[in-house]
Design a protein that fits this description.
The chain has about 210 residues and is an alpha/beta fold. It contains eight helices and eight strands; from the N terminus they run βαβαβαβαβααββαβα. The chain has an eight-stranded mixed β-sheet with strand order 3-2-1-4-5-6-7-8, sandwiched between helices.
Length: about 210
Amino acid sequence: MKVGFIGAGRVTGTFGRHLINAGHTIVVSNSRGPETLADFVADLGPGAIAGTKQQAAECDVVILATHWIRVADALKGIDWRGRILIDATNAHLDPPDISLAGVTRSRAALKGRTSSEIVVEMAVGARLVKSISNIPMIWIQDFSPNKPRTVIFTSGDDAEAKQLVIELVNSTGLAAIDLGSLATGGAMHEVGAPLSGLDLHFVRRLR
C-alpha cells in the first residue's frame, strides 16, 4: 500500500519505518517542500519518497501527523472527498504541555468535542479515522520482527475506512483495537482521555 504523510516529525519517522518494514511505500511531505526532506527520507530508506502535500494526499491512505496548531493549514488546498485520512494528531495547545494542568487546558479548548470531530470538519468529505496517537512514539522504537504487539487504538464513523486502517496497523506487527465511532472512541483515546498514554500489549483474545 502507498501511504502519504502530511508532516515529517516523530510520527512519520517512527510509524513510517514500521510501514516500510512491512513492505509499504510512504510519501513524506511537509510545509517547506520536498527538497528539504532529502536527509529525512534517506534515513528511512528506499521505501520512503519525498513529495508535496498534494502527492501525499493522492496515496491510498493519508496520515495527518502535524502539531495541532498547524492542522488547519496542513489540510488546506486538498479536496478530501472520499479520501481515507488518519488523524494521528494530539490536540495540545502551543507550546505542548503534558502536565495535568496543561492537558486539562488543552481538553477544555475542545469545548466538549473530540479533536477528530474538529478535524473532520476541516477536511470536508474525508473518511476520517483516529489512530496512531494514543502513545508516545518512543514507546514503539523496536522495529524488529519480535517486537511486542503494542496496542494502537482506532476509531471512526466509516466502517470500511476504519477496517482498512486496522489492517494497515496490524500489517506492521502492532495491534489495532477498534473503539467505535469518532465521538465515542475518540473520547476514550485522545490526549488526556482514559486510554491515552497506556503502554498496552496485545497477547490473546477469546472469540
